[in-house]
């Protein structure tokens, strides 16, 4: 088992390893203390039949009273409606401020549960048990929680750190190859931002079916996220580095009507952004070729079917834009990204350079 300690507004551990789920109760008891009595396990309709029994038995063995809230799997459930159903459920089951939530699932479950934990009774503890690679390497750490609004993704939420993150790598066995790739894209992104060794490791071992590879990838990616979040928990500076590939990635997701998944879009976005950075003279070395080589080894489709003008339009409707300038994440060398401001008026030119 690997252990990483995150020190943000709250200090907590990320435990990664095989066989953790059946022992989750003991770890959760240790993290939450003796006073916590009732736990609501929040999970979706795909994950519930796979893993909720093991988790709940383990919680009960550790003396918790466990209740379960199951919602329909999918991004559409990351909504105010599901949040409201969940909050009402917690109230009906009479959870108190000394009780807690456990998110068992992917990023949708983690974001929704975290926001419910942040708002129920003005805040109760919660634990993340990520079951997608994306949730393990990205969304379960760092305390960003929330739901989507009609007006856009992640527009309502809170910063609320978990008390523990427990990643049982055995849960990767039931994940589709496409979902594994979505997580891998974020791990490769972490390497591109700050860890050249991780990039070399991935290049040598692009095997997501190997639990040792999963453990190594997630450990290094979480370590990078730890460093960035500790420096800038509320996302006003360095945390923006985690957005490498995301300006274009979000634009591609949007242009595709969200038929291209987030990780797949970020993979293409990273390639476009690094090619453009090189053409603009902002990189010390060519980061595009080595990055594309890794992504191709995993089987990511890297062709972008959208024009610079379509992508620019989509990118400019993003909520993260401030005024007439835009902050881009630029690879200056392999494993080393920096923030760079670009006037909005030059975005199309930048994207064109990246597509060429
Ligand atoms: N909070 C953050 O910092 C942060 C960061 C990145 C992404 N996110 C959010 O994460 C979400 C995407 O996360 P996701 O891709 O994990 O989505 P998800 O939670 O919808 O999971 C994807 C699919 O996999 C299924 N699933 C989950 N675990 C499984 C398993 N072990 N075996 C089989 N199927 C399984 C789910 O039921 C779902 O159908 C988005 O809403 C995104 O906004 C948040
Ligand atoms: Zn992402």
Describe this structure in words.
The chain has 356 residues and is α/β, with parallel strands linked by helices. The chain has two domains: 172 residues, Rossmann fold; 152 residues, Dehydroquinate synthase-like, alpha domain, CATH 1.20.1090.10. Helices cover 46% and strands 21% of the residues. It is built from 13 helices and eleven strands. Strands 1-2-9-6-5-3-4 form a seven-stranded mixed beta sheet, sandwiched between helices. It has a two-stranded antiparallel ribbon with strand order 7-8. α1 packs across α2, α6 packs parallel to α10 and α6 runs antiparallel to α11. The longest helix has 21 residues. The chain is globular and about 60 Å long. The mean pLDDT is 96. It binds nicotinamide-adenine-dinucleotide and zinc ion. Nicotinamide-adenine-dinucleotide binds next to α2, α4, α5, β8 and α6. GO terms for molecular function: 3-dehydroquinate synthase activity; metal ion binding; nucleotide binding. It holds the Pfam family DHQS_C. Catalyzes the conversion of 3-deoxy-D-arabino-heptulosonate 7-phosphate (DAHP) to dehydroquinate (DHQ).
CATH topology of the largest domain: Rossmann fold
H and E order? EEHEHEHEHEHEEEHHHHHHHEEH
Binned strand content: 15-25%
For the record, the count of structural domains works out to 2
The biggest beta sheet reads: 7 strands, mixed
Question: Between the first and last Cα atoms, what is the distance in angstroms?
Answer: 45 Å
Instruction: List how many beta strands DSSP finds.
Output: 11
**Separate helix tally:** 13
CATH class of the largest domain equals Alpha Beta
- Helicity, in percent? 40-55%
| Unique ligands | nicotinamide-adenine-dinucleotide, zinc ion
- What's the mean pLDDT score? 96
User: Which radius of gyration do the C-alpha atoms yield?
Assistant: 20 Å
Low-confidence stretches: none
Spatial strand sequence of the major β-sheet: 1-2-9-6-5-3-4
Structural class: alpha/beta
Oligomer designation: single chain
Q: So what's the overall shape?
A: globular
């Amino acid at each position: 088992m690997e252990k990483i300690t995150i020190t943000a507004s709250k200090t907590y551990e990320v435990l990664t390893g095989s066989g953790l789920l059946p022992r989750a109760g003991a770890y959760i008891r240790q993290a939450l203390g003796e006073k916590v009595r009732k736990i609501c396990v929040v999970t979706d309709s795909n994950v519930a039949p796979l893993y909720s029994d093991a988790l709940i038995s383990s919680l009960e063995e550790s003396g918790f009273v466990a209740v379960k809230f199951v919602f329909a799997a999918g991004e559409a459930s990351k909504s105010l409606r599901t949040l409201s159903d969940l909050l009402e459920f917690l109230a009906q089951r009479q959870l108190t401020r000394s009780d807690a939530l456990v998110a068992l699932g992917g990023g949708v479950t983690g974001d929704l549960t975290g926001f419910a934990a942040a708002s129920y009774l003005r805040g109760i503890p919660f634990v993340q048990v990520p079951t997608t690679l994306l949730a393990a390497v990205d969304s379960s750490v760092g305390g960003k929680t929330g739901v989507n609004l009609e007006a856009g993704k992640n527009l309502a939420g809170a910063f609320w750190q978990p008390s523990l993150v427990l990643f049982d790598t055995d849960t990767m066995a039931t994940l589709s190859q496409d979902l594994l790739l979505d997580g891998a894209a974020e791990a490769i992104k972490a390497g591109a931002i700050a860890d050249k060794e991780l990039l070399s490791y991935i290049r040598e071992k692009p095997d997501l079916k190997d639990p040792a590879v999963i453990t190594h990838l997630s450990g290094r990616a979480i370590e990078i996220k730890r460093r960035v979040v500790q420096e800038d928990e509320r996302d006003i500076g360095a945390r923006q580095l985690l957005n490498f590939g995301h300006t274009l990635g979000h634009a591609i997701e949007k242009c595709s009507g969200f038929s291209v998944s987030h990780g797949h879009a970020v993979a293409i976005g990273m390639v476009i952004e690094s090619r453009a950075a090189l053409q603009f003279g902002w990189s010390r070395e060519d980061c595009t070729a080595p990055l594309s080589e890794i992504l191709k080894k995993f089987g990511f489709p890297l062709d972008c079917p959208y024009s610079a003008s379509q992508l620019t339009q989509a990118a400019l409707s993003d909520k993260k834009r401030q005024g007439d300038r835009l902050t881009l994440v630029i690879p200056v060398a392999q494993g080393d990204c920096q923030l760079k401001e670009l006037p909005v008026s030059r975005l199309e030119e930048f994207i064109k350079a990246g597509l060429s």
